[in-house]
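This week, look over our next protein:
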Amino acid sequence: MPITEKFNLLNNRFRSFYPVVIDIETAGFNPQTDAVLEIALITLKMDKLGWLHKANTLHFHIKPFQGSIINSDAIAFNKIDPFNPLRGAISEKLAIESILETVQRGIQIENCRKSIVVAHNANFDHNFLMAAIQRVKIKQNPFHPFVTFDTASLSALVLGETVLAKACKAIGLSFDNNQAHSALYDTLQTANLFCELVNRWKKLGGWPINIKK
């Protein structure tokens, strides 16, 4: 395979990691005790010229798991009513199973070996995701246990911004503050931001790396 084609494959861009953009809305800050209320994810793909794009989207409203804590401050912040019957919420187990099935399929299609969480302030989402996977007793976890791609850190490096809304605006993306803190909207904006950051690095000549023959 020619070198240029090799570096236009997703599995060669991130050390065979399959990046998945995730945002999780919760009822608190403790992943072991506080309820997951909403999860959205967007998978990514790379075109034949090596540009990164959004692929598939999943979004779930989640029923609080049995015995979970609902913190009033968190609910006031994200404006989610966990017990509103119109949410169409499903169990945490069903949501996690669907997410992992989609991710496993993407890993196989892209010939990657492990998935990696892409998120804004990624440690938060990664911790809640890992806790939920453990809670529903799924052994085949496709996500890396500790490595993440944090768009807050990447934005600080490239744009001098760490807040999602400010980073999006700095790079030329629109951002509606009225839709913020919805898992689906924040995932969409994070995915747009991550793709733009990766593609901008390519435009600047940073990828593929200069290979000595």
Q: What stands out?
A: The mean pLDDT is 94.
